[in-house]
Amino acid sequence: MRKNTLFRKSRKRTSRSSTKVVTGKISPGHGLKKLAELLSHWQSPFKFIPHEDHSTEEDEQNGELTTCISNPNFVPAMAKVDEEAKARGKEECRLIIDSVTDSIMQKIVETKNPEDAFDYDKVPVVSLNEYLYRCIKYMNHWYKDEPNVKSTGMRSLFLSLVYIQHLQKVLPGFQLNEFNIHRLFLITMLIGAKFTEDKPISNKYWAKVGGICVDQLNQLESAFCSISEFKLYVGDDELDRVYDEYH
After folding, report:
1. Is residue 84 a contact partner of residue 120, using CB atoms and an 8 Å limit?
2. CA triple 98-102-103, angle to 5 deg
């Protein structure tokens, strides 16, 4: 009888004090206590003095998760891979933009077109290379894309190159010059993104990116679509050809 009484008391006490013996799991209160003890060793989130691991054999037997954070600069392996991939994608985009800029600048002429809807009175201060990089950066920001060759910004750049080639076929005498090239890329990248993406980019946002007013952007968009007769579809083969040319 005494043995049974002690057994009943033991079970009753165990169920009240903690669930980890009965269920084999760590109670929330006990886990928070261990976390508070661990955090108490931190003097500052920016300066950490490592301490010994205060886990006991009883904790290990009960399956307690205790650890000593000795390196505050530790980054999980997956996070490191993501950062490295982001850096590689950014550098690859920069190289493609440089290649596109070099190719376009070789086609630039000094004379203006007689009637040019995309012409401007002055040559923009910012270089074409930096202008394209800015456009791609903020288009990716709008669509929450990472900087890589498959991002919306880079795809719009490739579409822009195809659209400019189509424009020169429709207007054989049309020449690229320093007075129209920035606006041509600005408007064709906008049209490319609108044609391929489900979420349309805001003209107000894109006008700020390009450094012009919304009315001018709307006029440029209308002019390009009218000249191209709204033939904006680009096949995969043509897009791959442009990608291979500059990649």
Report:
1. no
2. 120
Q: If you average pLDDT over residues 82-86, what whole number do you get?
A: 79
DSSP string, 66-77: ------TT---H
Cα 119–179–165 angle (5° rounding)?
Answer: 80
Residue type for position 73 = N
| pTM of this structure | 0.66
pLDDT in tens, 98-153: 999 999 999 999 888 888 888 888 889 999 999 999 999 999 999 999 888 889 99
| Location of structure tokens 């600005």 | 186
At 222, which amino acid appears? S
* Per-residue confidence band for 69, with pLDDT thresholds at 50, 70 and 90: very low
Measured in degrees and rounded to the nearest 5, phi and psi for residue 109 equal -115, 160
d(Cα 148, Cα 120) in Å, to the nearest integer?
A: 31
Question: DSSP string covering 136-194, please?
Answer: HHHHHHHHT--SSTTSHHHHHHHHHHHHHHHHHHHSTT---BTTTHHHHHHHHHHHHHH
